[in-house]
Design a protein that fits this description.
Number of helices: 13
Largest sheet: 8 strands, parallel, barrel
Strand order of the largest sheet: 2-3-4-5-6-7-8-11
Number of strands: 11
Shape: globular
Radius of gyration: 20 Å
Helix content: 40-55%
Structural class: alpha/beta
Strand content: 5-15%
Length: about 325
């Protein structure tokens, strides 16, 4: 017999979809006619190029699994890279302690956590490690089915379980959970220690799920080479916007290493010579249109992942801005 928690989540998932359908039917939003043609199912596969989004883009909004699915439908996103807390909360993970406010003060320095905050974080890490080592994959499968039924696939999973302090059991869990969600990759910032990328690559290979390494302005044309040489399951979660901001041309990298890229974050940044700002798509130096055209022409299969990081304009919100990015990509791809 199903437990009450599964039944409750199924009800919430159904309610979320119904609510999303109501919003689409009654609230005019960016690109709404496309939703009507698809009877409410999103479709961001444009002329062979899968445009997706990392759910970090909606970090300022409520982040339950039901919320995230509603956002996908509202913004016409049919494939995502799912941040860890959404999936883990759905699967019954221990509740995290309140996040300490570590924003820089007037002097620009970040405050230290109190002893109590450090103890709470340590206790939570221990609870999560124990939970990850034992949790059934059933809830992750349930989440995948709920999303797939609404027209959304999950191609990437980014839990906070792939760090040097995480146990082998936690790392193994990350790849198993990714697979249960339907993803072919679990993603993490590229570690500095080659021993860690070797460990991650070995456990990824055991699960036949890629470990996608992400970076910021430290990315260079050879930055991933050590990890890529350690395991065929070590791969690139390339960030084109940060790469351009660091002063590099993305085209040679894409030509040379597209077979190693499992997903590519897309944002529009100016080069460091122009200040490096993260800006509304079409206002920066990142060749988004030309790269999308290249992906279409060369039939690259990795998704182009919208990562919304620019400042939301007055009068707008993250969902409206994501929908604009989707429409930008659709037009660029001639769909």
């Amino acid at each position: 017999m199903e437990d009450l928690d599964i039944s409750r989540r199924r009800f919430l998932g159904t309610s979320a979809l119904a609510a999303a359908g109501f919003v689409m039917a009654h609230t005019p939003i960016f690109g709404a006619p496309a939703y009507i043609k698809r009877l409410g199912k999103p479709n961001s596969l444009f002329n062979g190029v899968q445009v997706g989004a990392i759910t970090y883009s909606w970090r300022s909004l409520p982040g339950s699994a039901e919320d995230i699915l509603k956002y996908c439908i509202e913004t016409n996103i049919s494939a995502i890279e799912l941040m860890g807390p959404t999936g883990e909360s759905f699967a019954g993970a221990p509740e995290a302690p309140p996040r300490p406010n570590l924003a820089p003060g007037p002097d620009g320095k970040r405050p230290e956590m109190t002893d109590e905050q450090k103890a709470a974080q340590k206790e939570y890490a221990t609870k999560m490690a124990e939970w990850r080592a034992k949790v059934s994959m059933d809830k992750f499968v349930q989440l995948r089915k709920m999303y797939n039924a609404a027209g959304v696939s999950i191609y990437g999973f980014k839990p906070n379980a792939l760090g040097e302090k995480n146990t082998d059991a936690e790392v193994d869990y990350a790849f198993r959970a990714a697979k249960a969600l339907g993803a072919n990759q679990a993603n993490v910032e590229l570690p500095n220690d080659p021993a860690q990328t070797k460990r991650l690559g070995d456990i990824a290979a055991k699960n036949k799920v890629y470990c996608g390494y992400h970076g910021h302005t430290q990315q260079t044309p050879t930055w991933w080479d050590t990890a890529l040489g350690q395991s065929k399951y070590n791969a690139m979660n390339f960030d084109m916007g940060h790469y351009v901001a660091a002063g590099y041309d993305p085209f040679p990298l894409l030509e040379a290493k597209h077979d190693h890229i499992v997903s590519m974050h897309v944002k529009d940044r100016k080069t460091k010579e122009h200040g490096g700002a993260n800006v509304v798509w079409g206002q920066g130096d990142t060749p988004i249109v030309a790269v999308l055209e290249m992906m279409r022409a060369k039939k690259y299969k990795f998704p182009a992942t919208i990562e919304l990081e620019y400042e939301i304009p007055a009068g707008s919100d993250p969902l409206k801005e994501t929908a604009k990015c989707v429409e930008f990509a659709r037009k660029a791809l001639g769909a």
